[in-house]
Amino acid sequence: MVFFDLVFGLLLVFAGRNLFWLCVGIVGFLVGVQCAEMLGLPDSWMELLMALSLGCLGAALTVSFEWFMLIFGMGFLGGGYLLMRIFPSEAQQDPHVWLVFVVGGIVGMCLMVIALDWTMIMISSLLGAMLIVSAVFGPPPFRDILFVISMTIGIVVQYLTLRGTPQEGRSAVGG
After folding, report:
1. Is 108 within 8 Å of 82 (Cβ atoms)?
2. Rounded to whole angstroms, how far apart are CA atoms 72 and 124?
3. Whole-number average pLDDT of the chain
4. Is 0.70 surpassed by the pTM of this model?
5. Do the beta carbons of residue 109 and residue 101 sit within 8 Å?
6. What local confidence, expressed as pLDDT, does residue 61 receive?
7. What is d(CA 158, CA 153) in angstroms, rounded to the nearest whole number?
8. Per-range mean pLDDT, top range of 50-54, 100-104, 141-145
9. In degrees to the nearest 10, what's the CA dihedral of 10, 16, 22, 26?
10. Is the pLDDT of residue 175 over 90?
11. Separation CA 76–CA 103 (nearest Å)
């Protein structure tokens, strides 16, 4: 999964807001891997199949139902996955692990409704930076610095592309 983490991380950091359908597909893939792990599926082709299926489904649904899938896919699933990655030890010890995911998802969805572009930029930059760091081996201080640099680059690059869009087409979903 190291290869996927690195590639997906770079895509999310640099193009999270602009390629929103791909980002929802990536989040679907990540949630698929998480589900496969939680269901106890062996680390094999079943895990990959579940992840690819959810990723493709997320991307396809985003093309068809942009607004809903952005709010649900990036907001709920992205926020939930992000919170699970931020607090992994608490999530693994809690018998109600799904509550951690739901809380992150609700916060992510609310933020998506309030400030779509900025939430897309923040969630995709944070997720991308986490994936990049998880793909790189090194001591914790190096990984922490890499996380901050990756996240900052993602926010700046995506902000600059946001600034360059015309006012009427400023939202990632065209309105």
Report:
1. yes
2. 14
3. 78
4. yes
5. no
6. 74
7. 8
8. 141-145
9. 60
10. no
11. 9
Q: What is the pLDDT of residue 153?
A: 93
User: Alpha-carbon torsion 98, 99, 100, 104, what sign?
Assistant: positive
Q: What angle do CA 81, 110, 76 make, to 5 degrees?
A: 25
With tokens 């509550």, the residue in question is: 99
Type of residue found at 153 = I
Separation of alpha carbons 12 and 27, rounded Å: 10
Task: Give the residue-averaged pLDDT of 111-123.
Answer: 84
CA–CA gap between residue 143 and residue 132 (Å, rounded): 9
Buried b (16+ CB within 10 A) or exposed e, 80-110: bbbbbbeeeeebeeeeeeeebbeebbebbbe
Where would I find the H helices in the chain? Answer: 2-15, 20-38, 45-64, 66-69, 78-86, 88-93, 97-114, 116-135, 140-163
d(CA 88, CA 93): 9
Q: Are 134 and 88 in contact (CB under 8 A)?
A: no
What tokens appear for 163 in the block? 């600034």
The lowest-confidence range among 67-71, 103-107, 127-131 is: 67-71
